[in-house]
Design brief:
The chain is of the alpha/beta class. The chain has three domains: about 80 residues, Orthogonal Bundle (Arc Repressor Mutant, subunit A), CATH 1.10.10.10; about 100 residues, Response regulator (Rossmann fold), CATH 3.40.50.2300; about 160 residues, 3-Layer(aba) Sandwich (Rossmann fold), CATH 3.40.50. About 40% of the residues lie in helices and about 15% in strands. The chain has a seven-stranded mixed β-sheet, sandwiched between helices. Helix 1 crosses helix 3 and helix 8 packs across helix 9. The radius of gyration is 23 Å and the shape is globular. The chain starts with 9 loop residues before the first helix and ends with a strand.
Length: about 375
Amino acid sequence: MINNQPKTLKYMQVEAAVRELVERMEPGHRLPTERDLAKMLDCHVLTVRKGIQPLVDEGVLTRRVGSGTFVNPRSNDVNASVERKESDYIGLLIPNIKSLYSDRLVQALADNALANEISLRSAWVNDFDKDVPTTVSEMVQSGCQALVLPWYPSEMNDQIRNFVANCPVPVVLPKLVPGLEHLCFESKEVFGSTSILEVEVICKYFLGMGCKRIHFIGPENTTSPLLQQKITAYAAFASKNNIDAKFGLFDSSQDSLMNLARQEAQFKGDLAVISYDDAHAARFMTAMHMQGLEAPTDYRIVGHNDTSIALNTVPPLTTVRENFAYISRAMILSAKALSHGGVDQSTEVVKPQLVVRDSCGGRDTLEKADLPQCEIIRS
């Protein structure tokens, strides 16, 4: 039956089928596995996963790693959903682009909403110019008073601006957009301050280990506001502390990366590296390995985002983890305020979370490290 419908709607049909199944199940019961559901519904496992995700976001289901997906208890008050304020119904619009950051943030938003008895409805979208208007119209008709856009790539900036200008309900944005600053979950006075503090913390961490040569590496994408913030913070710290600032920005080509590795190899034994993110750190470590150099013996390196990549490098990568609990809380509070015609932007400067592993050789020096500006996590 599902295959007789348009393929673009298949995951929505899976969602509907799973909702019907959940209605017939008792709280605490476990759903069939995603593989079994895929066989039952004659579709791909990834389609099942995408169809189930909205129910997880809404708190209807809970995923337990290694155990399965379970039906959550229903409210004892059958009228709870009717009596719940419309402002507690928040929609999530999620770009249909693979992003571990987005996945983690969406899960944090779901957890925060569930803890505060706020309903969430999620929609994955491909194009904000073509797909979103119909989706948003359906959400608004069902009582949605505000939307949260937890993440989107920089190349979608123009689409987002046009979408927000024509959206019938306010939209919480994850970035500062000129003219729409009041829609960002953080005030313009503090937005990006955590990223700046993060760079300062890593630099101080390296200085505490006796490193004098600290370099910054990342993508050749000068349009990224986050990259610009980090580069500015690094340059400012280097200037204040008489460090010779050096940037290693490389593109996706292997030649660009290998050229950078050959340049950095000359500083063997006296090099500490701040990477824009874990992915660029991992690529750099591989290139340095091809030069016969290993971390932390020949150089030290710290990444950002604490992705699965950080655990799979050799050695495991020290990295900075985003505070998703804080971001999700601030986004939901902002959405609630906007739904009432107000503004509630976070003015909190959150401490970076430094996850210490082996790539910087800093485990033995942590006790001596004076880093009150960050939360240190020994992994």
